[in-house]
Amino acid sequence: MSTLANDNALVLQTLEKLERRAQRSRPVVAAAILLAVLSLIAATLLLVRSVRQAEKLEIAQEQLERALQERNTIAARLAEYNKVLSSESASPAAVEAARESSRALSQALPEADGGSFAMPSEVAVRRVQLLTVGAPTGWDLDVFWCDGAGAAENYATARAASIALAGPAAATRPIAPGVRLGRVQLRPIQPQQTAGWRAAMKGRNLLVVTDPGTAEAEAAQAIVGKILTSAAVIDQSELGASQSASRWYLSIGACAAG
Questions:
Q1: Residues 248/141/154/131 CA torsion (nearest 10 deg)
Q2: What is the enclosing helix (H) or strand (E) of 255?
Q3: Any transmembrane segments, and where (predicted)?
Q4: Of 184, 227, 225, 234, nearest to 204 (Cα)?
Q5: What is the pLDDT of residue 110?
Q6: Helix ranges, 138-186 (H)
Q7: Do 197 and 191 meet the contact criterion of CB atoms below 8 Å apart?
Q8: In what order do the strands lie in the sheet with 232-235?
Q9: What does the DSSP 8-state code read for residue 177?
Q10: Quick check: helix, strand or coil at residue 176?
Q11: Of 13, 41, 42, 118, the residue nearest 76 (C-alpha)
């Protein structure tokens, strides 16, 4: 009988020990379960966040692709209009129509694109390069450079000037009261005009040429005062050209003697 009692006592002691161990382990198990739940929640939140970011990125990518497609379409059409504008055989009516179409297209460019422009070639290319169409009501600018003697220096000077002008033109903001910049082009001077430009330089590296057109002097002075500070303003007559008034147009030239 005593043996049975002893066995029962031993069983009871063992059960009490197991119960105490279970009680001690409950907080640890609970903490482990809580940690696992929190980890699962964090992983779920990260997954949701990643999905949302991926969706936003996909939307942004689609918007970028549409904007680039639209920009390429506009650029292609501008290139066609630019061929007309730079053609010597185009009729005045065709040139005016191309110019008006260019201005209309400039208004279709994305607003967020303001201030950006096409960077001209780093090396001299003997063709017209359109940097920007600028403000629809701005002054159109042709930046010329002389080929032949000193061509590399002339091109570098004209290129730098065209870049300096293209930024404010593309931003469409006024550089002075009532003065905005429109289309900016970089182009070589026609061979038959080179002598007149070289003679007019008189040691200067950059000229802004005005004619009797309305408000040309004011626009030229604004350009020299705000952007092309090393340039000089001259009258069209100094190039040996006939005095004819242009409308919202200025020519700028770099034509060192070499």
A1: -170
A2: none
A3: 28-48
A4: 234
A5: 44
A6: 151-171
A7: no
A8: 129-132, 181-188, 139-145, 249-254, 207-210, 232-235
A9: T
A10: strand
A11: 118
